[in-house]
Design brief:
453 residues, mainly alpha, Growth Hormone, Chain: A, Sugar_transporter_CS, cell membrane, symport, transmembrane helix, symporter activity
Length: 453
């Protein structure tokens, strides 16, 4: 505690602070843009990329190749967390957030410019450039989330960290809905040939406008109070990644497995369900059978489900403050395990069952994803918080998300049903449940500018 004393004509100036509105907009718009870019690729990977970039493969192999390129970004994310975490813990949150947004924004625009593999001279080059851009997208997102989470939570009033932490998390459903609305609009206004030829490029090129807006907002930020205290205490880590592994490696492991079920659930709910939903009920090319929905119809169903994602992301903040992060997440993770075992019954129950599955899955997603922007940063001291939280979040992306679509397609093909996919999700939830059980509650930890592990 410290007090400011004023007398006569002199006074101690009050340090400038980011307003609540500025924090909300800056953390929300950044992650919305990042996730819009990311989901634009995920949607294209399901709908057009197999034919455009892997035209010489059969249906299943082309789809798996497209998902393999999709997974490259998840491999890049831990690299991005170390790179941007280094500067976030040494230079500051603001400048690093600007750099991460630029990295992903440029890569996304370039994806929209890549010629198809059928273009003369691009048969090999096109897939390689696509993979490179995916790596850069992952690099940027690897640094984005940690900075956005710290922007929100390090500016939050006491007792409000989990609530303010839902601001950047809300960018996930907003970005998903926005990306899919764009694809729906294009699909309904263009012919199939036009969409495949050039229409799919529009969402990627249009992201340039969103990036400009995001940069304008973030450049108006000032540094967070916690990092300012670290600088004033001359406690900035020289090599944050070395310091965080020296002092907090157990927390990195804990945070990684705490995020595992969240990642697995989300990418199965989006990428896998889309592919299963629109796959033909009977196939002749070796592809596994699906539900046979029209593409546009199922995208609308996903958007409805994602509205529940957003609503329950917001609801998770007050719940995490009232009951604690650990108790809430233990209950939700148990629910995810049960949900995994309901895959087949719900998918087999017609449109009502499928819609119920999407609503339930995205509701659980909001409840598990929302508190993570508070919980993961709370595991680490302020001078390595950007690096530690980012590494945990992004290593989990490899274990829970990078391989999830690939494994899901393989399991789907092996059983010709989603039964094994649901078991796979339940197994990831069980691992997360154990990690949460072993982790202490973090709601009341010192967060202002502590540097002790």
């Amino acid at each position: 505690m410290s007090t400011s004393v004023t007398s006569g004509a002199t006074s101690t100036p009050t340090p400038a602070a980011n307003s609540r509105g500025r924090v909300i907009v800056a953390s929300l718009i950044g992650t919305s843009i990042e996730f819009y870019d990311f989901y634009a690729y995920a949607t294209a990977a399901s709908l057009v990329f197999p034919a455009l970039f892997f035209p010489n493969q059969d249906g299943t192999t082309a789809l798996l190749a497209s998902f393999a390129a999709f997974g490259v970004a998840f491999v890049a994310r831990p690299v991005g967390s170390v790179l941007f975490g280094h500067f976030g813990d040494r230079v500051g949150r603001k400048a690093t957030l600007v750099a991460s947004l630029l990295t992903m924004g440029v890569a996304t625009v370039v994806i929209g410019l890549i010629p198809a593999a059928t273009t003369p001279g691009w048969a090999v080059l096109a897939p390689l450039v696509l993979v490179l851009c995916r790596f850069c997208q992952g690099l940027g997102l690897g640094g984005e989330w940690g900075g956005a989470a710290l922007l929100a939570t390090e500016n939050a009033p006491p007792g409000k960290r989990a609530i303010w932490g839902t601001f950047p998390q809300l960018g996930a459903p907003i970005g998903f809905i926005l990306a899919n609305l764009v694809f729906i609009g294009l699909s309904q206004t263009l012919t199939e040939a036009q969409f495949t030829s050039w229409g799919w490029r529009v969402p990627f090129l249009a992201s340039a406008v969103l990036v400009i807006v995001g940069l304008w907002v973030r450049l108006k930020l000032i540094e967070t109070p916690a990092f300012t205290k670290v600088v004033e205490a001359e406690a900035v880590a020289k090599v944050p990644v070395a310091e965080v592994f020296r002092t907090s490696w157990r927390k990195i492991v804990s945070g990684t497995f705490i995020m595992l079920a969240t990642y697995g659930l989300f990418y199965l709910m989006t990428t896998f369900t889309l592919n299963y939903g629109i796959a033909a009920t009977e196939t002749t090319d070796g592809s596994p059978a699906g539900l046979g929905y029209e593409k546009i119809d199922f995208l609308w169903m996903l958007i409805v489900g994602c509205v529940f994602f957003g609503l329950f992301t917001l609801a998770s903040g007050p719940l995490a403050e009232r009951y604690g992060r650990r108790p809430l997440l233990l209950v939700v993770t148990g629910g995810i395990a049960v949900f995994g075992l309901l895959f087949v019954p719900l998918f087999a129950a017609g449109t009502v069952g499928v819609m119920s599955l999407l609503i339930l899955g995205f509701t659980l997603m909001g409840l598990t994803f929302g508190p993570m922007a508070a919980l993961l940063p709370e595991l680490f001291p302020a001078n390595v918080r950007y690096t530690g939280a980012s590494i945990s979040y992004n290593v989990a992306s490899i274990l829970g998300a990078a391989v999830a679509p690939f494994i899901a397609v393989w399991l789907w093909e092996a059983a010709d049903s989603p039964v094994l996919v649901g078991v796979y999700l339940a197994a990831m939830a069980a691992i997360t449940f154990v990690a949460l059980w072993l982790q202490k509650e973090t709601r009341d930890v010192d967060f202002s500018g502590d540097i002790k592990a």
